[in-house]
């Protein structure tokens, strides 16, 4: 059962993991590449370290190599060159040890449609050679709001509930690393919110979470670090907040007292955009620049006789930064 604070009990998962530190890696990828038989290079040499207990978001357009990278780490796809270790175990030589530490929620909903929720999740635990543990399965189902559906056949569930069953299967053997490949694709907003609350509790209990998502605002809100992959190349890995600070631009918006027909020539040196109705001026500036130019702009606005009623700022979203990064490549 949940404790009074609503947190995930520490008994739910295998949590030998300690709090994340910069020198406590759980996954280490070195020089990994992948070229398929037909000659298609899905991954260029990749070096990546995932820290224990963090939420790491892997972003990239369709076909970028996200699923290939995850599948290789999880032992589903054979690697090319390079090496991968999970908790110090090589994914090829120590397959059983690494696979037992990993839970995977794939994009596809692959379950036995005629089996019950309880039997499906319990069977997944047995695949790892673990003895039955009804209390753990019950707790997983309760935390995923599946307890009332435990005797339902999978075929009777909604798409969102089937997605929850996939997560329950991945947690059945108490993994210390959980991969979520587009976990909220096609899921309604309420269920998406519930899933992310669960992910946060899992992270707080010591589980390392690696997720791919098309909902970039979720990565911005959830992830400790972000990796951007495009055309098989890992472009960038950065702390989410640091990435926003390094690459983000800010916009200063002035709500004008009187509408303008056009930006005066005296202000042409500034990167200003006038709204269609002439009531707002937007100034874009680099947060890393030595001088933002705002003080000079405000002075020149006053000299031009332009008054404003209000002023506000907005920083670029992670989505805008991501699009810029991909386009630059």
From TrEMBL:
GO MF annotation terms: ATP binding; ATP hydrolysis activity
The keyword Transport appears for this protein: yes
Name the UniProt record assigns to this protein: ABC-2 type transport system ATP-binding protein
Pfam families: ABC_tran
SUPFAM superfamilies: P-loop containing nucleoside triphosphate hydrolases
Matching InterPro entries: AAA+_ATPase, ABC_transporter-like_ATP-bd, ABC_transporter-like_CS, ABC_transporter_ATP-binding, P-loop_NTPase
Residue ranges annotated for the ABC transporter domain, each copy included: 27-256
Keyword set, alphabetical order: ATP-binding, Nucleotide-binding, Transport
Signal peptide: none
Domain of life: Bacteria
Cell wall biogenesis/degradation listed as a keyword: no
PROSITE patterns cross-referenced by the UniProt entry: ABC_TRANSPORTER_1, ABC_TRANSPORTER_2
